[in-house]
User: Fold this.
Amino acid sequence: MRQIAIMLALVAAATASAQNFKPGLWELNNKIQTGDPQRDEALAAMATQLKNMPPEQRARLEGMMSKNGISLPTAGADGGIVSTACLTPEMAARKELPISQNGKCSSTQTPVAGGLDVTFSCSEPKSSGSGQIRFVDENHYTMNATVNADAGGQGQTVKVNTRARWLGASCPARPK
Assistant:
């Protein structure tokens, strides 16, 4: 899961370099496919577990994530995992995203008609991948990515398909 979060952060970072990407609150609807029915089922179960989490535990987790401008993911109506992320004007100017990244990663973004092509490589945690970001308009983009990760000593390939939409210029206040 950590590798998927890093891939989403890197691909989102590439998005910040495109002129169409604007500061504000973004909703991300991610569909993740591992190619392994058991793992795909576990991802779906995770969203249900988050939904049914005890209120105190949920509040702690929401507090930790909100410090990075990210909402606690929820299950989308179409089976995706939905979250929101805030990109402040200052962060956009620095090309910095609200998703914290603890790994040692590098990425390359190549502008193409309608968006960007992205590749990345991380040494900690060991993972790599590539993706395409395509802007639908100034308020929407799609991303399709393939992530190759070392999960528990076993190689794993994950496909991530994201639909993103800009919700507005205002973001919820972050806790201090």
User: Anything to note?
Assistant: The CA atoms of residues 27 and 97 lie 14 Å apart. Residues 2-16 form the longest helix (15 residues). Residues 2-168 form one domain. The chain has one domain: 2-168.
